[in-house]
Amino acid sequence: MRIPRTKLWTLVGGIFLAQGAIQMFGALPLWNQNYKPKGQVSSNLSPDQMILAFAGMREMIANILWVRADTFFDQGMYDAVLPIIRLTTWLDPRAIDIYATGMWHIGYNFTDEQSRSDRRYIPSALALGAEGSRNNPETYEMFFETGWIWHHKIADGFPKAVYWMEEARKRPDLPPARGNILSMAYQRNGELDKALDLMYKQYDAAAKRVLEGGEYGDRNQRDTVGNNINVMLGRMSQRGAFAKPGEKPPVPFDTDPKFDVGFTAQVTIPEPAQLRIRATWNVRPVGTRVRVILRDADYPNAIPGGMVWDATNEVALDPPKNLTYMQDDNLFFRNRRADKTIDMSRDPTMYPLVSDKYYLEFYYNPRIAPPHIQDKFSWSGEGMTAKPEFLNTEIREGQRVVFYRMELTRDMLRRTGDWLDKVPVFATPYFEEDRVRNTDDNLIQVPGILAEP
Amino acid sequence: MSVILSIASTTLGEAIRRRVLLVILLIALGSLIIAPGLSVLQPRGQQAAITSLTMGIIQMTSALIAIVLTVYMIPNEIERRTIYTILCKPVQRWQFVVGKYLGAVAALGMMIFFMTLVLIFVTSLNSGFDIARVQELVKGPFMYFWQMAILSAVAMMFSTFVTPLVNFFLSSGIFIAGTVFSSVFQSFMENRGTNELTKTLASAVQYIIPNFALYNVQNPIINPGQEIVNEFGYYLQSVGYALLYVVGLLVVAILIFDRREV
Amino acid sequence: MEAAIEIKQLVKTYKSKIGDINVVDHIDLEVGKGEIFGFLGPNGAGKTTTIKILLGIIYADGGDARVLGREVGDMAIHKKIAYLPEKPYYYEHMTGIEILRFYASLFKIKDEAKLKGLLERVNLANDGHKTISQYSKGMQQRIGLAQSLINDPELLFLDEPTGGLDPIAHIEIRDLILNMREEGKTVFISSHELSDVERICDRVAIINKGRIASQGRLEDLLKGGRYEITASGVPEGLAKSIQEPDTLVSFKDGRLIVDMPDTTSPNAVIEGILAAKGSVISVIPRRKRLEDLFVETVRQKNEEEKAGGRK
């Protein structure tokens, strides 16, 4: 008996049409919705890595790779860790620990010889955090971790820290004590009412849990938040936060009158790629750290005193190689003076200095000042002033910050060309080479700190 | 029908006695049992990693068995000349092909079933017996079974005209391509830079090659707590897809084998 | 005589690098019902190919072949025929009875008693529950014969049924085949085991390089025996005087051996010896053997071809 070949071939044709239709319009869209591994980032991966990943056991492979990465951490081979982070998070988009560790690693571990972070990596760290939170939206962790980078590492762009911490707080698994950080983020963002309101909520919640027979942690949380509320109320009162507009209290607020920080600075370049900075600041004995930035004048997404850190969504394994961005948050003043040499010459990969034009910036924001300083300056610099050349109310909305920018050239920084034998010297206005202590100087009397006689 | 069932059951009986398959199966079962002992992993991900590992073991073993089992099925019959004693009886060639295929799938089903039992046992041993978890777990192997049914049909189809070794690589290649291409296709479609011709070509390829990725439903099993939309509908469609594909491939196999001189 | 197998101008061609090769080259063959037919030829002559065409396993490229009155490939034929391939391997995990059950199921036969009977018939009644892997070669061949008898076939194709068997197994199989003749079955045996064929076949065909070299009844084909006359004390002159056609004469030291066809009377030679005072030691009539015929035919055919190939 012969089989009806033509009919069968027609049948095959029909079947193939039908199977494709079921797949393309039925099963595949549902698969994408339900079962597709989330957060696939196919860029930066080689084809063999992709095939490996598709061969199954993605999570297992991720785990093995991550254990391997541990060795590289121990040996300080940080460059080798980066691709593993990228690969593992891609293989297992639910691996929160890898996302968190990876973000921290990218954000903190790449430093120069003087322990300054390579901030060119920060956008990648943030992008990784954002990706981790997208892939794990049901838990607070990656939101919190990303918020923490904004809050602690970047310490600028405070609305972003608030945004991420608020997102974290929307997740029910956020431990109560970690919710307190949002309150601090609110303060740094100048949202005092929200900060206080959250404290009360946190207190009520903790108190309720204690009444319901809570554990030690609940009691501890209740007491901590209670204490925080006390301090917060005191500070708000002292700093005039409760004053009606134009009201003058019998005893002046600590922020009144505004205090001139007396910032001046001088920059010399004694050796190639070295900045010697001498500066003045009228606070003593200690407590002030001014941010110094040296960057390409046209560094992408840079803004005065910092950068739009989350402008990109891509986790780059390599920093932009030919760009320079040096940020030193530690121009530290002791007894009104700072003298620091920032040596970039030993890290040519981090500071390639290949652009023509550079900005050198000084930036001070009271929002991250320690509380004893903030007591005078208040949260947004209400009690702080400086010479008009330095005081800036524009670059950070609603904040009074100190900002000063100088322009430098590559020849100056590298001591080449015209500057081969000449030491470049820059000074802000009012800078005095060897200032003698002047009794007329208006020195700050930092509340709560004993002034030196 | 009884002829097909006879051939199928004989094939099944032979398949489950093939030493190479039994060795593969034993290795897999052993791996399943020791998998939870791999606690060098990060603690949080351990559950996910072990589920991923065990699912992976089951899937890869099934795929290996499916291919090794099927590629030799018809060539062995020819080499041992048993096919002549069968085809000279009142057995149509299509009955022979269908019977052989059903036998292979039955053997695969048994082996997957066995591995699933071990998976449930090992999981229960480690984290207690939880009927809800078991119900989740078995969805993985259940879908692998259909995946392997297609893979077997692919290998069966090729075995009617290529040698086992070539078939092994062909079928493996198609399995990998059919698993990976879905993602490539997606990225083509989502990338605005892709030109229309490439998109059309990608759609055509996606339309034709078997989409093995459809049966990889392990993600929500590995990371529980995800919302699944229209699960029943999905299973219905993907099983239907598998059946259609298998029938299509078998008809092609029959058409080729019918003309084949053995 | 009603024909069980009719083959006319059958051609099967395989493509190869040096061009198309006719593995079966315009064969004509007819096998009557109830006959035991021997299909002889060296390895690669086209025996198995011809059988496969008759079974419908492969397809002819030309000519006509009918089995039991129907065109090959007809499923109806398959119910009435059986095939025992050369050195088949049965599913080793199965027992003898399971093998029979499996093959029976292909005919939708569910008669256990019949299967037991078949086992008895091939002398495996006590080994039916052993697996094939425990069977000797002879036992495997016997279970093969048993499976081929499941459907009470009218026509059996046996491909090298005694190949590779020890002498006792040989005899067992041969007897089984002879039994089939008694049952009136037609048996088509392809073989190069000539002694077996000679003992059991009614008719044979010799195939070489795809062509039938000769065919016919065995007794006709084997006509043409020889006498061997041995004598002593014969003078050399006599030896030289014997000049019959197709006769071989050897002489040494008065001892004479004459090898002559039986178409010529030996009397003249014997008389000559006696007349020369020689003494006849023996006169042995030697029948033609299938082996001689086979070698003769194949050699002749090859030589013809060599000569023809040059034209």
Describe the structure.
The complex is a heterotrimer of chains A (453), B (262) and C (311). Chain A has helices at 5-34, 47-54, 58-75, 78-91, 96-108, 122-135, 141-154, 158-170, 176-188, 192-211, 216-238, 371-377, 410-414, and strands at residues 259-260, 264-268, 274-280, 288-296, 302-303, 306-307, 325-333, 337-343, 357-364, 384-385, 391-392, 401-409, 425-427. In chain A, the strands form four sheets. Chain A has a five-stranded antiparallel β-sheet with strand order 7-4-9-12-11. A four-stranded antiparallel β-sheet of chain A has the order 8-3-2-13, with no helix packed on it. A two-stranded parallel ribbon of chain A has the order 1-10. By secondary structure, chain A is an alpha+beta fold. Chain B is mostly helical and 262 residues long. Chain B has eleven helices and no strands. Chain B has helices spanning 2-15, 19-34, 46-71, 73-79, 82-87, 93-127, 131-159, 164-190, 196-208, 218-222, 231-259. The longest helix of chain B has 35 residues, at 93-127.
Short recap of the structure:
Chain A is an alpha+beta fold and 453 residues long. Helix content of chain A is 42%, strand content 15%. In chain C, helix 3 crosses helix 4.
What is the beta-strand fraction of chain A?
5-15%
Sheet with the most strands of chain A?
5 strands, antiparallel
SSE series of chain A: HHHHHHHHHHHEEEEEEEEEHEEEHE
Largest sheet properties of chain C? 6 strands, mixed
Low-pLDDT runs of chain C: none
Write the layout of secondary structure elements.
The complex is a heterotrimer of chains A (453), B (262) and C (311).
Chain A: H1 5-34, H2 47-54, H3 58-75, H4 78-91, H5 96-108, H6 122-135, H7 141-154, H8 158-170, H9 176-188, H10 192-211, H11 216-238, E1 259-260, E2 264-268, E3 274-280, E4 288-296, E5 302-303, E6 306-307, E7 325-333, E8 337-343, E9 357-364, H12 371-377, E10 384-385, E11 391-392, E12 401-409, H13 410-414, E13 425-427
Parallel strand pairs in A: 1-10
Antiparallel strand pairs in A: 2-3, 2-13, 3-8, 4-7, 4-9, 5-6, 9-12, 11-12
Chain B: H1 2-15, H2 19-34, H3 46-71, H4 73-79, H5 82-87, H6 93-127, H7 131-159, H8 164-190, H9 196-208, H10 218-222, H11 231-259
Helix pairs in contact in B: 1-6, 2-3, 2-6, 3-6, 3-7, 3-8, 6-7, 6-11, 7-8, 7-11, 8-9
Chain C: E1 3-16, E2 19-32, E3 36-40, H1 47-55, E4 62-67, E5 70-71, H2 75-78, E6 81-84, H3 96-106, H4 112-121, H5 137-148, E7 155-159, H6 167-182, E8 186-191, H7 194-200, E9 203-208, E10 211-217, H8 218-221, E11 226-232, H9 236-241, E12 248-252, E13 255-261, H10 267-275, E14 279-286, H11 290-309
Parallel strand pairs in C: 3-8, 3-9, 6-7, 7-8
Antiparallel strand pairs in C: 1-2, 1-4, 4-5, 9-10, 11-13, 11-14, 12-13
